[in-house]
Design brief:
The protein is built from 27 helices and two strands. By secondary structure, it is mainly alpha-helical. Among the domains are: 208 residues, Tetratricopeptide repeat domain (Serine Threonine Protein Phosphatase 5, Tetratricopeptide repeat, Alpha Horseshoe), CATH 1.25.40; 78 residues. The protein has a two-stranded antiparallel sheet with strand order 1-2. Helix 15 packs antiparallel against helix 16, helix 16 runs antiparallel to helix 17 and helix 26 runs antiparallel to helix 27.
């Protein structure tokens, strides 16, 4: 016989083990309902087997209060029903019980009636007729013919059936009544009863988590060995009642009792963060990651942000790069941007560049191209920086501050490509700086750049004029020297005089106009900057908004705790 079948037949076995001579002596049997298991789904809200054992032990310890006899005729019929139950013929057993009750129910002694209805309730329970079982158990209890211990056990089963049938208010009343009776009898209350009571407070509408707290705590404290579902329920209660300190202590126990459960680690980390215990939140998440428990993208990104927050961006970047390579973290614009920021924060600009390039290609807004231009500028790749910054301005979608700064950086990238005398390049840089003057956050710097370029051009023009005058003076001296040479040549009658005269004509025709600047060398070399009107924001000494290519550490990670779920 299987264990399940044995447990189902426990009641019948208890009733008929002492069968003799047509009557049965009973010693407070426990219904098969209890032996089969709680009406509550054990996968979700616990297991009733311990509670049954506890009540049975309590009953065995109690002195036998009374002995009661079944009518011999009823006992004989119940014995036959028992044999049907042994053969798993529950429908046949039910039919016989129905027949017995129909024929003799009204004439039965209260004890016979209580026993018969108790047995039929057990049969109905084994046939999954929970409402029918509930009615029969309540009928048996209503006879008041059973001894107090047996009556109280029935109350426990009835309360569980109400829970099974989702009548949580009735379940709460029944469980509280059973607990009070057990306490009055000096019995140890089964922790599973406290667990069911707490669960009933939560399941009813509206849920009453504060009422559930005490029984949930008693269930955890009273269990001889830690039960995961008890802890899960108490964790939920503490979460809903915002009892962060108690919940933290509970979760600390839970990660030691069940270290392989990822949810407990992430919940504890998020809870620490909500309590401003960021160092502990980081440590818990890091330990869980090293143990191979952190495999979700969101948790990994939180850990990466903690590395940045605690000034270890290099490790965060390596971790994120590794998880992207395995496909655990998707290469989205947002995640690639984070990776590039980590590399830049770690002063690894060359490693940030290809990441930003990929992110920029994926984005339809200019912000990432703008950041790429910053990094390329910091890495002294000026031509590529110019291209990236122009792409950023073309895509748009940036804030006014970013746009102004982009114009300023563009001018800087262009100017850095200019060598001595590269006035055309400086002219392009000046145009970018002139556009930047329209943005208050960079207007001061932009005007300084425009003034600087104009001054470079002015000094260069003065230098050109001076050099031109020096060349002209040298040319005039050469002309005089050649004239004298030509005269001497004629007087001497030499045959090379024509060559000297030809050279003289060439130098005479090479005269330069030193009053006219070279092409493109007019002051400013391009658009002029009109002075801003008095009181304009452009005249305010705003701090330049040109950011360093190295981003600041990440902000304190914002964690959302997973909702604890009882198992």
């Amino acid at each position: 016989m299987t264990d399940d079948r044995k447990s189902r037949l426990f009641l019948a076995g208890a009733m008929f083990a002492l069968a003799s001579g047509g009557f049965v002596m009973l010693a407070t049997p426990s219904p098969a309902f209890a032996q089969r298991g709680s009406t509550l789904d054990s996968r979700e809200y616990g297991d009733d087997r311990d509670s049954t054992a506890t009540m049975q032990e309590g009953e065995e310890e109690q002195p036998q209060r009374r002995s009661q006899q079944l009518d011999p005729a009823n006992a004989q019929r119940l014995l036959k029903i028992y044999e049907l139950m042994q053969a798993d013929q529950y429908q046949a057993a039910l039919a016989e019980l129905n027949k017995l009750i129909a024929e003799r129910g009204e004439s039965m002694k209260p004890y016979d009636k209580a026993t018969t209805y108790e047995l039929r309730g057990s049969v109905k329970y084994n046939l999954d007729d929970y409402r029918g079982a509930l009615r029969d158990f309540e009928t048996a209890l209503g006879t008041n013919a059973l001894d107090p211990a047996r009556n109280n056990q029935l109350r426990y089963f009835i309360a569980q059936l109400y829970f099974q049938l989702e009548d949580y208010a009735a379940a709460i009343r029944g469980l509280n009544e059973w607990i009070r009776a057990a306490q009055a009898a000096g019995q140890t209350v089964d922790p599973n009863a406290y667990y069911l009571l707490a669960a009933a407070y939560i399941k009813r509408q509206p849920a009453d988590y504060r009422a559930a707290k005490d029984p949930a705590e008693r269930a955890v404290a009273g269990a001889p060995t830690p039960k995961k579902n008890y802890y899960d329920l108490l964790n939920l209660v503490y979460s809903e009642t915002n009892d962060g300190a108690k919940r933290a202590a509970l979760l600390e126990k839970m990660i030691n009792l069940w270290p392989g459960d990822r949810a407990y680690w992430t919940q504890l980390s998020a809870l620490y963060a909500s309590l401003n215990r960021d160092g502990e939140a980081f440590s818990v998440l890091e330990v869980a990651y090293r143990a191979g428990l952190i495999t979700k993208e969101g948790d990994i990104l939180t850990l990466v942000q903690y590395y940045s927050f605690y000034d270890n961006p290099y490790r965060g970047a390596k971790l994120l790069e590794r998880e992207m390579a395995t496909g655990t973290v998707a290469e989205t614009v947002k995640n690639l941007t984070l990776l590039s920021q980590l590399w830049s924060q770690a002063r690894e600009h060359k490693r940030a560049i290809p990441v930003l390039e990929k992110a920029s290609r994926l984005s339809d807004k200019g912000e990432l191209a703008y950041r790429l231009g910053q990094v390329l500028l910091a890495d002294e790749q000026y031509a590529k920086s110019e291209a990236a910054l122009r792409a950023a301005l073309a895509k748009g979608g940036m804030t006014a501050v970013q746009t102004g700064d982009c114009h300023l950086l563009l001018g800087t990238a262009i100017f850095a490509q200019a060598g001595p005398g590269d006035r055309a390049i400086r002219s392009r840089a000046r145009e970018a700086f002139v556009r930047a003057t329209n943005y208050p956050n960079v207007s001061v710097q932009a005007r300084q750049w425009v003034g600087y370029i104009d001054e470079v051009n002015r000094v260069e023009e003065l230098q050109d004029t001076l050099e031109c005058q020096q060349r002209e003076e040298a040319r005039i001296a050469d002309v005089e020297r050649l004239k004298q040479g030509a005269q001497v040549c004629r007087l001497q009658g030499r045959n090379d005089c024509d060559q000297i005269i030809a050279k003289l004509r060439e130098i005479e025709n090479a005269k330069e106009d030193c009053s006219t600047p070279r092409s493109g060398s007019a002051p400013g070399g391009g658009a002029e900057v009109s002075p801003a009107p008095p009181g304009s924001a452009l005249n305010e000494p705003d701090a330049p908004a040109t950011p360093d290519a190295t981003p600041p550490p990440a902000e304190r990670p914002k964690l959302e705790a997973e909702k604890p779920k009882p198992e």
